[in-house]
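Recall that a protein's primary structure is simply its ordered list of amino acids. Everything else, from secondary elements to tertiary packing, is in principle encoded there. The following example makes that idea concrete.
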Amino acid sequence: MRVTLLAAGLLHWAAAGADIPDFVATKKAAEEGDARAQYQIGVFFDRGIGRPRDPKEAAFWLTRAAEQGNVNAQAALGQLYSLDEDFPRDYEKALHWLKKAAAQNEPRAQMLLGQMYAKGSGVQADGERAVSYFESAAKSDLPEAYYVLGELRRTGALGVKQDPAIAASWYEKAAAKKHLSAIVQLAYLVRRGHGVPQDHKRATNLFREAAEAGNPEGQMALGASYFSGLGVNEDHVEAARWMEKAALQGLALAQFQLGSYYYRGVGKTLNMVEAFAWTAISGMGGYEEAESTLELMRKGMTAEQILAGEARAAELRALMKKK
């Protein structure tokens, strides 16, 4: 979320058709006391635009802007103190600046405060207050807020009453803003008929929308749709193609499923080395069934095949790390 917040100003300029300000000219204006320029320089240092990233220098300029009332700087500074892994955590300062920004209806600050109260990060956990901040952020049409409220209604977390119909309505709002995780969760509700009419074709189309935008959960679900023929003509080759896309993005369940396709020769040519490799990778990613499946595979493989499978797993892991 760091980039989302601190890039807000830059995205605003881009949306307005303006060029990103020149660093030297902007820094001169910042040194002369211009709060907007100070915020922009803080963004430059945080993002490493035009020079190496320097969170300390970013904090210096963001503080100067925040002290002058710049709401974007206040939100960004609160985030820097609460989330940045390269900067010392200071929840007291984070709360100070985030609350100032939230009081001015800055939705990203409201989201961060909601997360802090939900997790008890630097504050006593308070589900009711967390939900209140999420709801405030939603009033500003923030898709991430819609998504979180949908998740709360779906899961019943933070003491919120479970209601799939209300969850679906929040997901719909986020999906309209192209929030990919919301699109996937909405698709699952549609597929199961939870809170909305069951519609396999619509569910598959939603999975496809997320999948084509690069979302790994959407890719896996679309692969599963092709495999089972739900909402689309059954096509095991297409199922394997989408499952592989999800697997290459590190989704452990998709990796396991891809391994099973190779093992059974479904959608892929039967290949024990590939089957072993993908199953092993899924286990490294925390998929619990992988180890027992590997034991079963080993019984039907030669020593050379097992070594080749282990080498292939290492090769695939290196490939995924580069992406």
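The chain has 19 helices and no strands. The two ends are 20 Å apart (CA to CA).
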